[in-house]
Amino acid sequence: MTGTPLKAVEGQLVAELRRTLGWLEEALDSIGDGLVITDAEARVLWCNAGFVTFCGRSKLLMLGEPLFSQLPRSCSGQPLLDATALQGKVGEGQSGRLTGLLSQDPLRAVEIQWREVKREASGPLVFTIRDISLLLSNAELQSRADLANERRAESETRNAQLREQQRSLAAQVVECPVTGLPNRRALQNRIAEALADLEAQAGQVTILFCDLNGFKEINDLYGHHVGDELLVEVGQRLQQGLRSGDTLARLGGDEFVVLTSGRLDEIEALELGMRLQQRLATPWIAEDYLIRPSMSVGIAGTTDPEIGIDELLRRADLAMYDAKAKNDPKISHYNDSIDLEVKRTIVLKRQLKQAIEDNELELVYQPIVTLTDAQTVGQESLVRIQSPGRPALNPSEFIPLAERTGLILPLGRWVVREAMDHVKRLQRLSRSLRTSINVSPLQLKQEGFASWFLAQAEERDLDPVLFSVEVTEGMLIDHPEQTTRELQHLRQAGVRVYLDDFGTGYSSMSWLAKLPIDAIKIDRSFAADFLMDRRKQTVLQSMITLAQDLNFTVIAEGIETEKQHLGLLEMGCTHGQGYYYGRPRGYSAD
Amino acid sequence: MAEPVPSIASLQAGDRPFVLADHLGNVVAINPAFQAAFGWSQADLAGTSLSRILPEAFQMSHQLGFSRFQATEQSTILAHPLRLKTICSDGRGVISEHFIVAEKQNDQWLFGATLTPLPEDAEQVP
Q1: Residue A339: per-residue pLDDT
Q2: Nearest residue, CB atoms, A45 vs list B57, B77, B124
Q3: Who is most buried in A26, A236, A391, B121, counting CB within 10 A?
Q4: Per-residue pLDDT tens over the stretch A87-117
Q5: What's residue A171's pLDDT?
Q6: In this complex, which of B25, B61, B84 lies closest to A46 when CB atoms are compared?
Q7: Which of B64, B70, B72 faces A46 most closely, judged by CB atoms?
Q8: What's residue A506's pLDDT?
Q9: If you classify domain A184-334 with CATH, what class do you get?
Q10: Closest chain B residue to A45 measured between Cα atoms?
Q11: Which of A514, A512, A449 is CA-nearest to residue A486?
């Protein structure tokens, strides 16, 4: 029985307190001084009308914002108050006062006072801003302004001196603090010396630019302390592989550079690179993790003493990027074509980005048929780019580039939406057809890709069974957990999963049974060759048989002739795709 | 001519996310659209302060402004749209248009508000 009256009393008390607080706020709004309460980081939590008028901004826009950026600037263009005035003092019962000159003619000056509310652990600050123009004589005001300017000038000079000292100290550091190897500065000095020697006596300067493969993943997976330990280990291993007189430096991140001594021809440089790669390749154990380090090596040499340090490093760096894209050994020598290739890639990337932004994309569709009667039972959507006034971009170039640059994400989203719109159009014409959409590894690595895909179908009121996604083996093997989860989600909703380009990658038969797939698409190279190549025919036959034993649909890609069609039919293949049945074509309502 | 201020009942009958609060600023009810937009359930919010759905930096000003209305019955924020953040049950802030009206019923003030989520690039978001 006591609960209700108590609650009523509490409610009454709260109502009374509210009214009192309300009158107080009303009163605080009626004074001319600006009042502000901020948190310990000086973000505005409350202010009165005087402060709103002073700043000329609405209260709602200032809440949560830093006080410093709300205040007008002084007549000299400096902030009236900045973080340095409060720095390091929060929690120490800090308080302060300063005077700022807003204009000289007419005279307008303000005094800002602040203090910390000591009782509150969160350290809120209360600021008062008072117009003191009428309280000061012109001379006094001028003297205060001069004093403030003097202090600012002194402080700026001190800061400039400190910066100079720091710069000078940094210039003396020539050792990488993690590995103890010479750092970038030391390397630049040594390359400069080597190039200067070339002036005096003809010779050659060769550098090997070494970049660890997958170092970011190691850092992400095992933490930076493991990454740092690995860098030390790499430094030691590479050091052991050098010849007498060679210099190893760490450029930064996962980049090491070897400056070789003496004249080195291409073969010798390649041998040195391979030796360093072998030294590095021994498995390394840190904190129970087994890591197999590897690296890509770019080699650049010059006999020209005028080449410049940066240019030599740039060439080796470009060669290293070229090496990264190669199979083992991942080593490349710089040559002009690499430079051209990089420039071409830059142009292509710009063109691709522009095409995505300007919506110059098109989907074309190639039929998938049953081999027994050549009936179209599905289609694969393929993206094309046709910018006006430019030659069409080749998908075999722009898709891998989009993968490397992350542009595949906006491109992939467009493809899914467009393919679904297309299926919707077909549905309205009562011509529904299961449509395959190629999905990139990067897309599938995005958490929630399957949910997004299904939401797109739902938005268009489309049954997910009308779609299949085509994935490659590599992505299933490189990221099995994430991709399997996303693909299972899609399959549960009715989307079919096709394993694309089968036979070109790992193609481990034992893997096949474990993968969350419904069909395999046999790479076009098999259809092209099996009639002439007995061994390929045998492999093809065993792939078809195995896939069928595992209850997968088998789709042969790249069928171009009747002979290939009949041959595959005879081998038990049930589905096919290729020019023999139809080229990829844009949508037409006919 | 100024548009007539919509009643709490009309806001409550609409399909926008809606919250009803009593004279002390405690939540009385929310509608299903509110739950769908911000994740809070009726059980989460009923009887708790409205400030729970506001960003931390807004809470002090909200409490004082609310108190001031209790004292003076005057407000500068009622009956016109305000762009503010609304805090969801998972802690995210969603930019929303708040439209608040107040009505006196049985000598006690009652507050009703629609909070309509806005696109992320909506301008002038405090």
Answers
A1: 84
A2: B57
A3: A26
A4: 654 445 577 888 888 876 677 788 899 888 7
A5: 65
A6: B61
A7: B64
A8: 59
A9: alpha beta
A10: B57
A11: A449
Place of tokens 């850092």: A219
- Enumerate the residues of chain B whose CB falls inside 8 A of the CB of residue A46: 60-61, 64
User: Nearest residue on chain A to B70, judged by CA atoms?
Assistant: A19
CATH number for the region A347-586 comes to 3.20.20.450
Question: Are A424 and A462 in contact, with CB atoms under 8 Å apart?
Answer: yes
Q: Does ipTM top 0.90? A: no
Average pLDDT, consecutive stretches of 10 residues, N- to C-terminus, chain A (590 residues): 65 87 92 92 92 89 90 82 67 73 76 81 85 74 73 84 80 79 91 90 92 83 84 92 90 92 86 93 80 91 92 93 81 90 82 85 94 94 83 81 84 94 92 93 85 94 95 74 87 94 71 84 92 90 90 94 95 95 79
- Candidates 3.40.640.10, 3.40.50.300, 3.30.360.10, 3.30.450.20; correct CATH number of A31-149? 3.30.450.20
Q: Which residue of A has its CA nearest to B123?
A: A61
User: CA quadruple A427, A430, A434, A438: dihedral positive or negative?
Assistant: negative
Q: Which residues in chain A are contacts of B124 at CB distance < 8 A?
A: 61
Contact A22 B71 (CB under 8 A): yes
Q: Give me the DSSP letters along B17-60.
A: -EEEE-TTSBEEEE-HHHHHHH---HHHHTTSBGGGGS-HHHHH
Residue with tokens 């202010």: A47
B residues 76..115 contacting A (CB < 8 A): 77, 82, 84
Judged by a CB distance cut-off of 8 A, whether residue B24 touches chain A is yes
Nearest CA in chain B to A26: B68
Contacts of B111 in chain A (CB under 8 A): none
Domain ranges of chain A: 1-27, 31-149, 184-334, 347-586
Q: Which residues of A touch B82 (CB under 8 A)?
A: 60
Cβ-defined contact of B126 to A21 (cutoff 8 Å)? no
**What Å distances lie between residue A132 and A32, A111, A128, B37, CA to CA?**
11, 6, 12, 49
- How many CB pairs below 8 A link A and B? 69
**B90-111 pLDDT tens trace:** 999 999 999 999 999 888 899 9
pLDDT tens per residue, range B18-46: 999 998 899 999 999 999 999 999 999 99
